[in-house]
Fold:
Amino acid sequence: MKLPQCQELLTTLSDGVLTITLNRPHKKNAMNLVLVEELMSVVEQVKNERTIRVIVIRGAENNFCSGGDISGMNFDNASSTHDPMWLFNRTFGKMITLVNNAPQVVITVLEGAVLGGGIGLACISDVAIADINTKFAMPETRLGIVPAQIAPFVVSRIGLMQTRRLTLLGEHIYGEEAKALGFVHYVTQNKDELENQLKNVIDKVMLCAPEANALTKKLILEVGLVEHEELLDDAASYFCNSLKNEGNEGTAAFLQKRSPSWAN
Structure:
């Protein structure tokens, strides 16, 4: 598969794993509009490709993402919903929504700075792995800014009570507390351990059927958004369809004491 050419991202595709690296190290990988649009373009292109089973998002040179880069934007007329600031902010929200709904398993590798919009990206990953010294913060209110697009995703990730503290105080936390709050799943002690944990997670994903994972992710993301009985009707349909397809192979593999085709 040919991926879109990018200025602000590095992309590699190998053995069903698409790695997307935010590549603005001079800005600690802060996201500008070009980067946001490129990330949307890449995810949009691969979202229906089941041979791509994992999307890894990380940052160049030992920083994940220091938030949004607004340094080149004009704050004049910022009250207009058509100004560059509104467009950038809203486009970022569309991007994290798109990544959140990607059928693939999305893994974030968190190092260095995870600030503002970087936390938004971390919150929509299915699995987040962090170095113990990673700094997490939502400093927007200390700058007189509202964490507009990320706040709903942070609430969904760690709950209202802790989101209130972190957003309204603007304080920072590190790897172990981020895990305790539910931002991340794994905390590692050094670079080698981080990479080993990433490999371990990818290996586990590859044991799971790609379409079953995609439908399971779709189902759990609809909890609270789709009426309960309708959601269960959809779930029954997903279940029956999976039995006729990947489930047939999975059951046969189990009975024959072999690995299913997707795990080979």
Observations:
- The chain has ten helices and nine strands.
- The first helix runs from residue 33 to 46.
- The chain has a mean pLDDT of 94.
- The beta strands are 9-14, 17-22, 54-59, 105-110, 113-115, 127-131, 135-137, 172-173, 186-188.
